[in-house]
Amino acid sequence: MDNIVDSLGSAYQEFIAAAASALEAKESSGGKKTAATDVALENFKQRWELFRVACDQAEEFVESVKQRIGSECLVDEATGSVTTKPGQPVPSGLPPISAVRLEQMSKAVRWLVIELQQGSGAGSSASHPNNSAAPFDARFTEDSAQ
Prior knowledge:
Layout: H1 2-28, H2 35-79, H3 99-118, H4 141-145
């Protein structure tokens, strides 16, 4: 993360320096187009692109961290491994489920989403990776016990 922040900061500083150089070149030429202003503008455009790339990389990193944190929170919440602070009410909701069951359910949802995106409708067993002839059943043995 420090690398990304340092890279973004460096790209920003270089972008600002290139902007200042372009403005100085324009001012020193009296607003006329010269070889010096062309070089300064080209440098400015390059620094702008590098700055945008650094911003995109930082944004991708932030998004990946958000997804990872969200996934970890979901697993913690679903498995009941969330600890509450003193004085905080204990969440009363669904009983905790096992991490293995959560993963199975997540895979089932992903396959259903893929099927819907491909327009194959609800539950064609041919598109599932398991080669069993029986259709996928999202219910688990724990469901009947609850």
